[in-house]
Amino acid sequence: MEVPPPFSPSRSPPNPSPALSVGRSTLCTSVISLAAPRAVASLPAALCAVRLGGSVVRAAAVKVTLTGTAAAAAMAEDIRTKLEHYKTAPFDSRFPNQNQTRNCWQNYLDFHRCEKAMAAKGADATPCQWYYRVYKSICPTSWVTTWDEYREEGTFPGKI
Amino acid sequence: MANHSQLGFQDASSPIMEELVEFHDHALMVALAICSLVLYLLTLMLMEKLSSNTVDAQEVELIWTILPAIVLVLLALPSLQILYMMDEIDEPDLTLKAIGHQWYWTYEYTDFKDLSFDSYMTPTTDLPLGHFRLLEVDHRIVIPMESPIRVIITADDVLHSWAVPALGVKTDAIPGRLNQTSFITTRPGVFYGQCSEICGANHSYMPIVVESTPLKHFEAWSSLLSS
Questions:
Q1: Which residue in chain B is spatially nearest to A141 when comparing CA positions?
Q2: What is the pTM of this model?
Q3: Tens digits of per-residue pLDDT, B13-66?
Q4: Cα atoms in the Cβ-side hemisphere of radius 13 Å centred on B199
Q5: Contact B111 A87 (CB under 8 A)
Q6: Which residues cross the membrane (chain A) (predicted)?
Q7: Domain B13-85 class in CATH
Q8: What is the ipTM of this complex?
Q9: Class of domain B92-223
């Protein structure tokens, strides 16, 4: 079973895995990914808790089906729209506090992991651009340059 | 900016700072009331008007327990309200990165293009007439007014602190850490601040200047910067 790259359970998560459809709600994706980030393809169904207007509302059970290109195309369109309307990195509920160091690090890792996974599958790497835009917004340029050098040398401390 | 011998806050230019100024006024009133009461009681005591033969003081004990509790509640409630208000999530329109060095700031705007510049203090010998000594910089931060701005603050070498009193912002710049703060400017203007964490010989000479302008002027400025 192929392992989909980790995706962000933030408010607008792109799902780079083309084999997974979770209906229309991208917010539901967050809960599913939190439940089983590495085994999403085998998840039969999930209750999706979404936050609406400050209160947690249980949405209907979301049927997770393995679909092909139609869902992938819809997902790609979603991410393209999100990228077109990108202003700056949105609030990420995984990092709600003052310390955003991990936010920068995680998005940098996610981008490179996504690119690597997409290249391995021969799939379109456009959804990975979300992580790129976010880390570009948050990470200091000098940090990114240093990490890029480490990756080239093979001494990068993160797992990509 | 602050004028010489200024005692009070600078005019608030962000909603949070407005709240902080109001809270300070309120806290100062509470402090004035307590000090007046204490002074009054002290005077009475010195004039020997408070002597008593009683050994049972239940009533007065009750009063000077309940009254301070009420005072504390009067201080805590608005304080916590502002604390939570500061943490409210407001999706920012722009992310600005401020990196502290010895002894200047680097600012980066990388949401779209890679815009980056250094900001050094204007030396007094080069200061044009009418400009503010030790506060002016060669390149100011320009931001659109009335827009939520996220600032990510870090440092390259030692501890610094990015502070702009008129906006109610002060956040430490720590090497290896990204500290996030945010603000909205309620009006256009130029707001000054100074490094607020001792960082070596020229700690007093690395000021911060934020220029808040309408969006179209900000866009014009950023186009100039990127060209």
A1: B108
A2: 0.80
A3: 999 999 999 999 999 999 999 999 999 999 999 999 988 888 889 999 999 999
A4: 28
A5: yes
A6: none
A7: mainly alpha
A8: 0.92
A9: mainly beta
